[in-house]
């Protein structure tokens, strides 16, 4: 064998080792998330979970190339596509497929009629799902801005779809419906949302974005699930950050909602986040006015001293730490700020009428700025 051939074989061997290492790393990462979701109720071990998921990543039947007709409807989410594939025997487990797609950062799946088979690998299935031929115009788009409360979101949905606000609120707060959603989204919706003191269980969980719909009046289920799909997709990227911060999804969305409500177009959200972190570390109440307004259940141009005394698990003037739940829906910038605050020694901030936010270190400094910008105006 020549030295050139020897070097070529060594390179091929190295490439194979690298590829196997990448595949093993992918399996381990999927195991960390999917094992919790799929086997938590069974108390299954990591070893069993690893073997199961490793198997689920393989073709259903490598020897069966019998064609199967599969239809992916317009507007299907990744979750919906995965369920269709599992139901048609193209993949073994819908959850494992979804996590694989997320880890690989795959997107661009298209509606259409496909001919697939049980012998296909995930990569082949994903490639096929990007070749759909069915095209349909969007009937309407639903835009949910950042910083909206559930009541405001319901109003927007009502105006766009014709459902009454009462219809929407009834379903969004129905215990059986919430239970079904918790089963569908176990990595996002936990028992935290069922605390009897929480005003609305889904407050803060319907992600702000623009959602296209392809029918005149999609069901309430479809509307809610497409928003929760988006929430799940966004939060998935921050799993490691949440683990590092020892922060649950509920805590993250709660923290981020405070930043969202305090932020202005000119505000550095990371600095606001740092103030909250600094106050929590020192055992100081967060004392953020939006939580008072949420506790009051109404908007006011100015929070009065008497308002600060309202007895509520949302009022951060009377409780320590975070409120019991989110007070609005937070955008991605606020979520990132909640996980990655600036390093400052600020303990106070003040928003002026022109949108500027002034950060200070001491109460005396804060009061001086308040006298300049608020009290005398």
UniProtKB/TrEMBL annotation:
Coiled-coil regions listed in the entry: none
TM ranges are 30-50
Question: Where would you say this protein principally sits, based on its record?
Answer: membrane
Top-level class of the enzyme under EC nomenclature:
lyase
Q: Which domain of life is it from?
A: Bacteria
Segment forming the signal sequence? none
Q: Which UniProt keywords apply?
A: Cell membrane, Cell wall biogenesis/degradation, Lyase, Membrane, Transmembrane, Transmembrane helix
Q: A GO molecular-function term, please? A: lytic endotransglycosylase activity
Query: Its Enzyme Commission number?
Result: 4.2.2.29
Q: Where is this site: Important for catalytic activity?
A: 262
* Catalytic activities: a peptidoglycan chain = a peptidoglycan chain with N-acetyl-1,6-anhydromuramyl-[peptide] at the reducing end + a peptidoglycan chain with N-acetylglucosamine at the non-reducing end
Q: Where in the cell is it found?
A: Cell membrane
Q: What cellular component terms from Gene Ontology apply here? A: plasma membrane
Pfam family, any one: YceG
Q: Report the Gene3D superfamilies cross-referenced here.
A: Classic Zinc Finger, Endolytic murein transglycosylase
Q: Name one GO biological process term.
A: cell wall organization
Q: How does it sit in the membrane?
A: Single-pass membrane protein
Query: Could you say which protein family the record assigns here?
Result: Belongs to the transglycosylase MltG family.
Functional summary from the UniProt entry: Functions as a peptidoglycan terminase that cleaves nascent peptidoglycan strands endolytically to terminate their elongation.
From the Swiss-Prot or TrEMBL record, give the protein name.
Answer: Endolytic murein transglycosylase
Q: Which gene encodes it?
A: mltG
């Amino acid at each position: 064998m020549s030295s050139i051939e020897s070097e070529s074989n060594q390179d091929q061997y190295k490439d194979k080792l690298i590829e196997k290492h990448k595949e093993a790393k992918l399996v381990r990462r999927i195991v960390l998330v999917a094992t919790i979701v799929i086997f938590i109720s069974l108390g299954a071990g990591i070893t069993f979970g690893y073997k199961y998921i490793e198997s689920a990543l393989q073709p259903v039947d490598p020897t069966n190339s019998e064609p199967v007709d599969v239809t992916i409807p317009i507007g299907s989410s990744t979750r919906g596509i995965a369920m269709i594939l599992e139901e048609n025997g193209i993949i073994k487990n819908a959850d494992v497929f979804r996590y694989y797609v997320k880890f690989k950062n795959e997107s661009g799946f298209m509606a259409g009629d496909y001919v697939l088979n049980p012998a296909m690998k995930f990569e082949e299935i994903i490639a096929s799902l990007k070749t759909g031929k069915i095209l349909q115009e969007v009937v309407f788009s639903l835009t949910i801005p950042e910083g909206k409360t559930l009541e405001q979101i319901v109003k927007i949905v009502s105006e766009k779809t014709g459902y009454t606000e009462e219809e929407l609120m009834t379903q969004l707060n129905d215990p059986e419906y919430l239970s079904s959603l918790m089963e569908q989204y176990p990595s996002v919706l936990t028992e935290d949302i069922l605390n009897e003191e929480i005003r609305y269980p889904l407050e803060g969980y319907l992600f702000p974005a623009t959602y296209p719909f392809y029918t005149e009046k999609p069901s309430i289920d479809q509307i809610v699930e497409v928003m929760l799909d988006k929430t799940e997709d966004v939060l998935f990227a921050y799993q490691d950050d949440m683990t590092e911060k020892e922060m649950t999804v509920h805590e993250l969305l709660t923290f981020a909602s405070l930043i969202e409500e305090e932020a202005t177009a000119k505000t550095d959200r990371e600095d606001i986040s740092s103030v909250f972190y600094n106050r929590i570390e020192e055992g100081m109440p967060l004392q953020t006015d939006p939580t008072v307004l949420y506790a009051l259940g109404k908007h006011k141009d100015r929070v009065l001293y008497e308002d600060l005394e309202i007895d509520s698990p949302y009022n951060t003037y009377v409780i320590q730490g975070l409120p019991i739940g989110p007070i609005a829906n937070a955008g991605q910038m606020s979520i990132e700020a909640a996980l990655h605050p600036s390093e400052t020694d600020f303990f106070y901030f003040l928003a002026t009428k022109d949108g500027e936010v002034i950060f200070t270190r001491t109460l005396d400094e804060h009061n001086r700025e308040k006298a300049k910008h608020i009290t005398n105006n």
